[in-house]
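Quiz preparation item.
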């Protein structure tokens, strides 16, 4: 297989020096004495790759070429940045070349900003796998460590493709103590079946779409005709509207009543208006990002005012077993501590037809 490989040389430099991110703050990070992080983690990854059947396509100099040459892996440099100081534009250009050359996987070392740039270039047409090297990794396309990423490459023929959210963090707001997270897309990302909870689930996980369809079939079977359903963001929730024969909003919130989508891509104000018309309502959500946030990250339309109106007891959580295997706990951050406390310590998550797992909830 041809594998695209690139490194964001400055990713993660802002962390140790207290900048809460590196976007737009590289020079400040250097002035504070920051040292490169991503190249070190890339070396850990490459030193553990044992399979000699892959050829790596890469970008020049510090974006991957030098590290691959050091590791002695089969390499072809297909993109050379024009400037010594590389940018997100270089990441996007390199990934487009990888795609044009027919690579079957892109591995990148960086954080959420790098994930965003890779996804902007290739979307869900090519699986992507992140080696965590940034300050923040909210996106669901990262391996836990460089070691687990290397294991995935070494056993790539055993890997299954799962959905992974790509999250965009507003770093300026983050430095001011505010967390503003946007869900920018759903990528494909490889995972090893051996890391899933059991062989039964490993078999199901080979077909993420089939698992999503089973969940959607169950949800549509139990939907009440007198209840409004607010369908959250993500590919698993989108399968619910697809099962109803409707087109949903992959990255937004739709309203369904009596089997029909009656409103699409609602914001907070739109949801509150529609709640005035329907006394019975339930929200259907799926964990977002690597940390598994069911509410509060990437789904800010479900504001404290909205959740208070719906009621925590009326929030239905759905997720495939493959997704749950990568998120051992679920997280909640509605923005209102008192509202967070109204949720239980664990949530039942629908993970198949008439099947559920109880997951610990961190509030």
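Solution:
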């Amino acid at each position: 297989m041809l594998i695209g490989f690139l490194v964001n040389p400055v990713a993660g430099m802002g962390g140790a020096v207290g900048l809460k991110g590196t976007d737009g703050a590289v020079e400040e990070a250097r002035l504070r004495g920051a040292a490169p992080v991503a190249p070190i983690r890339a070396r850990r990854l490459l030193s553990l790759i044992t399979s000699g059947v892959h050829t790596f396509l890469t970008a020049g100099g510090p974006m991957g070429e030098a590290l691959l040459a050091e590791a002695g892996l089969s390499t072809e440099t297909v993109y050379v940045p024009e400037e010594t100081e590389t940018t997100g534009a270089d990441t996007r250009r390199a990934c487009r070349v990888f795609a044009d050359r027919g690579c079957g996987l892109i591995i990148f070392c960086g954080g959420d900003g790098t994930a965003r740039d890779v996804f902007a270039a290739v979307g869900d047409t090519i699986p992507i796998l992140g080696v965590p090297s940034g300050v923040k990794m909210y996106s669901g396309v990262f391996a836990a460590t460089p070691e687990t990423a290397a294991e995935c490459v070494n056993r790539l023929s055993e890997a299954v493709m799962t959905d992974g959210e790509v999250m965009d963090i507003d770093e300026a707001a983050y430095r001011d103590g505010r967390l503003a997270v946007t869900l920018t897309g759903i990528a494909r990302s490889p995972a090893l079946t051996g890391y899933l909870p059991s062989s039964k689930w490993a078999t199901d996980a080979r077909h993420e779409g089939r698992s999503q369809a089973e969940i959607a079939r169950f949800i549509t079977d139990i939907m009440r005709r007198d209840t409004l359903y607010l369908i959250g963001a993500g590919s698993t929730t989108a399968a619910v509207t697809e099962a109803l024969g409707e087109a949903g909003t992959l990255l937004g919130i739709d309203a369904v009543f009596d089997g029909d989508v009656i409103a699409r891509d609602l914001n907070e104000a739109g949801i509150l208006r529609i709640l005035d018309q329907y006394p019975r309502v339930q929200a259907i959500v799926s964990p977002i990002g690597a940390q598994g946030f069911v509410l509060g990250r990437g789904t800010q339309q479900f504001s404290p005012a909205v959740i208070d109106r719906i009621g925590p007891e009326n929030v239905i959580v759905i997720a495939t077993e493959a997704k749950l295997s990568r998120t051992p706990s679920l997280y909640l951050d509605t923005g209102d501590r008192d509202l967070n406390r109204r949720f239980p310590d664990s949530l039942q998550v629908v993970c198949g037809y008439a099947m559920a797992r109880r997951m610990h909830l961190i509030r």
